[in-house]
UniProtKB/TrEMBL annotation:
Cofactor(s) annotated in UniProt: pyridoxal 5'-phosphate
Record-level Gene Ontology MF annotations: threonine-phosphate decarboxylase activity
EC primary class: lyase
Protein name per the record: threonine-phosphate decarboxylase
Species the sequence originates in: Xenorhabdus griffiniae
Transmembrane segments: none
Pathway membership: Cofactor biosynthesis; adenosylcobalamin biosynthesis
InterPro entries in UniProt: Aminotransferase_I/II_large, CobD, NHTrfase_class1_PyrdxlP-BS, PyrdxlP-dep_Trfase, PyrdxlP-dep_Trfase_major, PyrdxlP-dep_Trfase_small
Domain Aminotransferase class I/classII large residues, every copy: 21-349
Amino acid sequence: MSEHGGNIIGIAQQYGLSANELIDFSANINPLGASERVKVLIKNSLADIEKYPDAEYRHLHQAIAEAHQCDYNSVIAGNGATELIYAVTRYLNPKRALLLIPGFAEYRRALRQIGTEIINYPLTEEAGFQPDLRLLNTLSTIQPDCVFIATPNNPTGLMPDNPFMQSLVEHCERQGIALIVDESFIDFLPENRGLIPQVAVSKHLYVLRSMTKFFAIPGLRLGYLISGNIAGIAEMKNRREPWSMNAFAARVGEILFDEHDYIAATHQWLTSQQHYLWTQLLTFPELTVWPPSANFLFFRCHKPNVDLWHALLKYRLLIRHCKNYVGLDERYYRIAVRSEWENQRLIAAMQQVFAYG
């Protein structure tokens, strides 16, 4: 099974299904789809396939810098946030790294590729799967070269509180620990600006963003990294392969920050449908559900002998099994928030699985 959601073609082939039959709750992509302005831009830019993209991606980097009111030289865009996870890992070349578990698989893969010693820091159910100030004590004891943390976390969807994150940033800055904060889902939290405003006064903070999930462009692949370590950003740009982003992704990225109507519509959809799924899942006594902050929900099924992944696949619903996350087992699942009728279909299927009604 894939380490990520969205493997709809592979699952369909494995189980003899048509990919078009399946509703994909395993990938956390905005169900509104790409905006009309994005689609029109691509149609009007078809001639760009005949030309090389700007190898420096100047207009894209400028758009990102202006959107976040940061230094142009502190920004590097990439072929999804994933490319930049590998880029910053290769640049830092840490001997020892700390990973919060459960967490996104690509941090571990990137570190393993360069032979880094990985220390796991478990986020436990007893602590609500949230880090607290005990993490700072662990960092002082272990003294890793870098730490990865996702805010909100994937797969739990939980957001650490702002005072904790501020303490973590300050601790890592004092200790000279590279802190890589993955904010791939933070656009779904309209009231949270994240840590990008702090990069100007931090030399060890690296903030990752993804445009794939919120703007529903997973086929284009687009993300960016912002850091106050200007020399480090320049080094990452110099080291990577040329033209890592295609022309369409670069052009689209230049306009996404101005998609105010789309952004507002997304937040309106999420407020409604996140609440619906959350409250409906809470009605199942067989589940323990954690409060969502982003566009997906995390839960544990404690009814014996129920494999929800296979059970829901019979209803042509694909959810994310979390058993291949380090620190979790077969009882844990993640589901994306989708459109109203799709969410209703999921809840109806779960009622059948648990034999309600």
